[in-house]
Design goal:
- The complex is a heterodimer of chains A (370) and B (569).
- By secondary structure, chain A is of the alpha+beta class.
- Chain A is 24% helix and 32% strand.
- Chain A contains ten helices and 19 strands.
- In chain A, the strands form four sheets. Chain A has a six-stranded mixed sheet with strand order 6-7-8-3-9-10, sandwiched between helices. Chain A has a five-stranded antiparallel sheet with strand order 13-12-11-14-19.
- The longest helix of chain A is centred in the middle third of the chain and has 18 residues, at 177-194.
- Residues 1-8 of chain A have low confidence and may be disordered.
- With 569 residues, chain B is mostly helical.
- The chains are: A alpha+beta (370), B mainly alpha (569).
- The A-B interface holds A 18-19, 21, 61-63, 65-70, 77, 79-86, 88-90, 92, 94, 96, 98-101, 109-110, 113-114, 141-144, 157-158, 160-161, 163 and B 1-2, 5, 9, 12-23, 459, 461-462, 464-472, 475, 479-480, 483-484, 563, 565-569.
- Bound molecules: adenosine-5'-diphosphate (ADP) and magnesium ion (MG).
């Protein structure tokens, strides 16, 4: 679908999902999902709550069977295999640690029933404890650990059998912000160290952007876009993605001709798909930080004058509400503190701004939050 | 499945998951559970039902038995009597238990623990005990007989008084649970709006406990209408459905008419049960996760009034028990009041002597051990099996049904089913085993619900984690589920033990000469006029179940201590 930077050079996907659908009664939780995940990749399923991320993850794990469609792992079809015959480790949102077993016993739970000798189990458990940064907590019970520590134990337990794939369902959402930021880095590091193919479900776009090799953006049971964080951020494939990931201006426009959209009195040059015929209603999207305010000359494309309606100081930058076409503020722009100072930007000032054509994305007009 | 789909991307095959060993075992387990509940309950009930449509030669005669029943006023009057007794008893118990529960949960009176324990005593006694005590107090030679002004304790009045004593703790448990669920914020809001105490009670307290009150009402109604022992001992010539069955079957050997009465007794029990379940289903979670538990504040006048009330009610309960205890150790009421233990030499009053007690003890132990195992594994299967919806729904229905079947009816049904010449299981007839099966089944539902509640509180992903770690469910059941649920498992086994020890109605039709039970000898000794010995046997049962209950409390405390490292949150 889109070009991807892969951790390894191979092109054979490790996990392949083919036309997967899932119905709960008459409710369609997953619609015709096809997806390829490559070896050693870190993939995030990102989407609003209720969009089917967990359902997809559970189908991959064999915990909730899909209604139709097929799944391949390592070249082998696993569509009909029960969970116990699939090769994955999983961390649930609740962690599901066994409360009556101490940390070591939790981590070694799968090893014991493999008939591994006790000494080896002990070594492996200690290795895992060190791996997740809890070398001295083996004898504690889950209830005696903090949320972040419990989460690490759950990860260690999922890794104990050296599975081919690690599945994480919102592993950080139960933690407070500081711990969460810290664990993001930890999980990412762990992944780099072990190189295990990892799928993480999250509804937090920042988490997905900072952690994933590739992001699968989902909405209402369907995939909206698959791409690297940069692609998803820079080139959102739909208005939904543009809106859900980061902040975006949505400007209502009408196609004026090839490569041109009218936005009020302003004529915007942009990359325009051929299938938008002249006169069709569109939405033009641009990120606030892409609005240009410096070095605007007569040759600068898509330049127009705007009035500063409001300024919000946000530390390292200012968020500015701009009124264009002589109306209410309809365009939000992020300007660096430098620019604000140099250009003496203040409320009421009228000045030229420009929307670089390569930063504009044009989508069909939908009733969507502006 | 893969054959026709390869190479054709447009055809997406419908997916089915293959079953692993755990799936197969779980489904097999559910099938076994269904088979078990069919043999122990559904088929016997079917046998009872078909018997009621037959004549003495086993020929089908349609509704003839029923027509005869309803056209014989002497029989039919019992329906009215039973319903009347049940309604009046319920009307007495509910307000008493409500105020008592209110005092325990919403006041700051002293000695709450003592009052709570006192009120629960009747659960540990056979229902016959209050009847015997009342006879000592108000019977033909009772020392308070004058209080009746020439009236009789034998009859409706006696039955109702004894039932109030016997049912009180059952209502109390439900109402205490209902009243302890209160959100302090509601009360603060109400008083901030300036509502009077009275208004708060009627607009906040009562609606909050509404479902508990309704549930308690149905439970008492069913307990009273299906109880046999009290009506047998103190009913005199006042006939109710439960004693009618006994008279038809044991007295007149008219099994067909017994089956008819049994079926008629089933109807109010099933109606009460169904109505309760429908109403409870409407109950939404009253307590949100953010609810603030209500801490009662001291209000001296109210607290002392509550104290006085509880002292009176608790005192009466204790008094009733004390009368039996005292009666069991005096030589000959009312002529010789010297203390003696001769009444406990049961061999002098009944051919089985202490043998009946030991039979009861082994019945209780077997019921507790086997019953707890079956109930817990059954509930586990129902909660944790994936797929197999039809089998699970059927098993679920069968697991809930025993609650609606009176013990007396189930016992009678067992006669028809296990004593039938064609039944290969006939060999257990007349043994202790059939009574164990009967007791386990009769008390199944309450235990099942307890186990299911405990299992529902466990993280639903434990089984998924086990599967991902390639650990069999059986191992996770033993290593994790059972240890975490141990307090509930103990509760279930104690419940089964105490009930098997005290029940009369479930086993009255099933004992044989070698397997007579303690509670049954109480009925027999009372019939033969050995009331003191009957009281002594009742007290022996009370001592036994009290000892077991105390052991249970100590064990649970110990368990809490040893496991607090992982239970505390
Ligand atoms: N067992 C179920 N039965 C019915 N509906 C379900 C079930 N599990 C999930 N759903 C529905 O499927 C949708 C997707 O759920 P889920 O995958 O859990 O969403 P999320 O993206 O938040 O993880 C939701 O609308 C949810 O209500
Ligand atoms: Mg989810």
């Amino acid at each position: 679908m889109t070009e991807t930077k892969l951790a390894s050079g191979t092109t054979d996907p490790y996990l392949k999902i083919e036309r997967l659908s899932k119905l709960f009664g008459t409710f369609t939780a997953l619609k015709d999902i096809s997806l390829e995940i490559f070896p050693r990749e870190f993939v995030c399923f990102l989407g609003p709550s209720g969009c089917g991320k967990t359902t997809l993850l559970r189908a991959i794990a064999g915990l909730d069977v899909q209604t139709s469609g097929r799944i391949f792992q390592g070249g082998k079809e696993i569509s009909a295999l029960p969970s116990s015959h699939r090769d994955f480790g999983i961390v649930f949102q609740s962690y599901a640690l066994f409360p009556n077993l101490n940390v070591s016993a939790n981590i070694g739970y799968g090893l014991v029933s493999r008939g591994m000798p006790r000494v080896e189990i002990e070594t492996r458990v200690n290795d895992l404890l060190r791996l997740v940064g809890l070398p001295d907590s083996g004898r504690k019970y889950p209830a005696q650990l903090s949320g972040g520590q419990q989460q690490r134990v759950a990860v260690a337990r999922a890794l104990a059998l050296s599975p081919g794939m690690l599945l994480l369902d919102e592993p950080l959402s139960a933690l407070d912000a500081r711990v969460r930021a810290h664990l993001r880095i930890e999980i990412r590091r762990l992944h780099q160290r072990l190189g295990i193919t990892t799928i993480m479900v999250t509804h937090d776009q920042e988490e997905a952007l900072t952690m994933a090799d590739r992001i699968v953006v989902m909405n209402q049971g369907a995939i909206e876009q698959v791409g690297t964080p940069t692609e998803v951020y820079r080139k959102p494939a739909s208005a939904f993605v543009a809106d859900f990931v980061g902040t975006t201006n949505f400007l209502p426009g009408v196609v004026a001709g090839p490569g041109h959209v009218r936005f009020g009195d302003i004529n915007l040059a942009c990359e325009l798909d051929i299938h938008f015929g002249p006169g069709s209603d569109v939405t033009v999207a641009i990120r606030p930080e892409d609005v240009v305010v410096r070095n605007i000359g007569p040759a600068t494309p898509n330049a127009f004058s705007a009035r500063v309606a409001e300024i919000e100081f946000l530390g390292s930058f200012c968020r500015v509400g701009l009124a264009v076409n002589g109306g209410d503020p309809s365009l939000v722009a992020d300007f660096s503190i430098n620019a604000v100072r140099d250009l003496a930007i203040a409320e009421g000032k009228v000045m030229p701004v420009a929307l670089p054509p390569d930063r504009l994305r044009v989508f069909p007009r939908q009733t969507l939050t502006p | 499945m893969t054959a026709f789909a390869t190479g054709d991307a447009a055809v997406t095959p419908l997916a089915r998951r293959r079953l692993d060993r755990d799936d197969v075992l779980m489904r097999l387990g559910i099938c076994l559970l269904i088979a078990w509940l069919c043999i122990a309950m559904a088929l016997p009930l079917w046998a009872l039902l078909s018997k009621s449509f037959q004549n003495q030669n086993g020929e089908f005669i349609g509704l003839a038995n029923y027509i005869r029943y309803f056209s014989t006023p002497a029989l039919f009057i019992s329906v009215w009597n039973s319903v009347m007794i049940a309604v009046v008893s319920t009307a007495f118990v509910l307000p008493l238990a409500f105020v008592y529960a209110y005092a325990l949960t919403r006041s700051c009176m002293r000695w709450k623990g003592l009052f709570q324990a006192l009120a629960l005593i009747p659960i540990l006694a056979p229902s016959l005990l209050p009847a015997i005590s009342l006879i000592y107090l108000f019977g033909n030679q009772g020392f308070l007989k004058e209080l009746l002004f020439g009236g009789q304790i034998y009859g409706a009045g006696g039955i109702i008084l004894a039932q109030v004593f016997y049912c009180f703790p059952h209502a109390l448990i439900i109402l205490v649970a209902a009243l302890s669920m209160a959100d302090a914020r509601l009360y603060e809001a109400a008083s901030a709006l300036g509502a009077s105490k009275m208004r708060v009670f009627f607009t906040v307290t009562l609606p909050g406990a509404k479902y508990g009150v309704i549930s308690a009402g149905f439970v008492i109604f069913t307990l009273v209408i299906t109880d046999f022992g009290i009506a047998k001992v103190i009913g005199g010539r006042f006939n109710v459905l439960a004693t009618d069955i006994y008279k038809q079957v044991i007295g007149q050997q008219n099994f067909e008419m017994g089956a008819v009465v049994g079926f008629i007794l089933l109807i109010p029990a099933v109606i009460a049960f169904t109505a309760d379940r429908i109403i409870q289903r409407r109950q939404v979670a009253l307590l949100s996760a953010r609810a603030v538990p209500l801490e009662p504040k001291p209000v001296p006048r109210r607290d002392w009034a509550m104290f006085a009330f509880c002292a009176a009610v608790g005192g009466l309960i204790f008094g009733i028990l004390a009368v039996s205890a005292w009666a069991s150790v005096i030589t000959r009421w009312p002529y010789n009041l010297t203390l003696t233990l001769n009444n406990y030499a049961f061999g002098d009053f009944d051919t089985d002597g202490w043998g009946a007690y030991w039979n009861s003890l082994s019945l209780a132990i077997w019921t507790a051990v086997l019953g707890t195992g079956i109930v817990f594994v059954g509930a586990y299967l129902l909660e944790k099996t994936r797929g197999f919806a039809l089998g699970r729904a059927l098993a679920q229905l069968l697991a809930i049904m025993p609650m609606a079947v009176p013990g007396l009816v189930l016992g009678l049904a067992y006669i028809f089913f296990f004593n039938a010449p064609w039944n290969p299981l006939g060999f257990i007839y007349g043994t202790l085993a059939i009574m164990v099966v009967n007791s386990m089944t009769h008390f199944y539902t309450v235990c099942h619900l307890t186990a299911a509640t405990a299992l529902k509180q466990m993280d639903p992903e434990f089984e998924a984690v086990s599967a991902s770690l390639k650990v069999s469910l059986l191992r996770t059941l033993v290593r994790v589920t059972v240890p975490v649920c141990l307090p509930s498992i103990l509760d279930i086994s104690i419940y089964l033990f105490v009930n098997a020890m005290t029940t009369v109605s479930a086993v009255i039709f099933l004992y044989s000469t070698n397997t007579k039970l303690a509670a049954v000898t109480i009925v027999n000794m009372d019939e033969s006029g050995f009331t003191a010995a009957a009281a002594a046997m009742a007290m022996t049962i009370v001592f036994t179940s009290t000892a077991v209950k105390i052991a249970h409390v100590l064990l649970t405390r110990r368990l809490e201590r040893t496991t607090q490292a992982w239970r505390r949150r």
